[in-house]
Design a protein that fits this description.
Distance between the termini: 44 Å
Radius of gyration: 25 Å
Number of helices: 5
Structural class: alpha+beta
Helix content: 10-25%
Number of strands: 8
């Protein structure tokens, strides 16, 4: 059990019962109500992820996240991140602008439900959009992998939740 949580309570500390009160800085300096200084809670940052599951032949596009951010050194599908929830048409338009897909050169298979994950300082929401491509994209820093190889790659929990859902 956490001693501090039971004895050093913020609103009603039990200093007179504490066996360490003679060595306690706050108690001996009459600063029990001021110490410890409670740090302000960090504001939750909302992030919206739209993963494109791009099929070309029997392979799917994945890439390794190398940026110092969440999920560093884990794999992901091509990602469009936005600051607010965005509709499918806008996501596909952004993918076309990035030259990941060409208008009329893909068929949409499905769009997933919204997945959510709460981290200590971030709230994540996202969807997975599956597309079959008739032409391989020019742009993109991803690799094309078979389903067998994909099973051996490390993905974040957020993506694994999607992969584990029966389709």
């Amino acid at each position: 059990m956490d001693f501090g949580a039971c004895v050093c309570k913020p609103m009603a500390p039990l200093c007179h019962e504490c066996p360490f009160n003679a060595d306690c800085y706050a108690y001996t300096n009459d600063q029990v109500q001021e110490l410890p200084v409670k740090a302000k809670k960090q504001k939750l940052r909302s992030r919206y992820f739209y993963f494109l599951i791009l099929h070309f032949g029997k392979k799917k596009a994945v890439r390794l996240r190398t940026k110092k951010d969440i999920w560093q050194d884990l794999y992901e599908f091509p990602l469009i991140e936005t600051e607010k929830a965005t509709n499918l048409r806008e996501i596909l338009s952004l993918a076309e602008n990035n030259q990941w897909i060409k208008k009329g050169e893909y068929e949409m298979i499905s769009i997933s439900r919204t997945y959510k994950q709460l981290l200590s300082h971030q709230k994540l929401e996202g969807q997975f959009i599956e597309l079959v491509l008739t032409e391989k994209p020019i742009n993109g820093d991803w690799n094309w992998v078979t389903p067998a190889l994909m099973k051996k790659l490390a993905f974040p929990r957020f993506i694994n939740a999607y992969l584990a859902d029966p389709k």
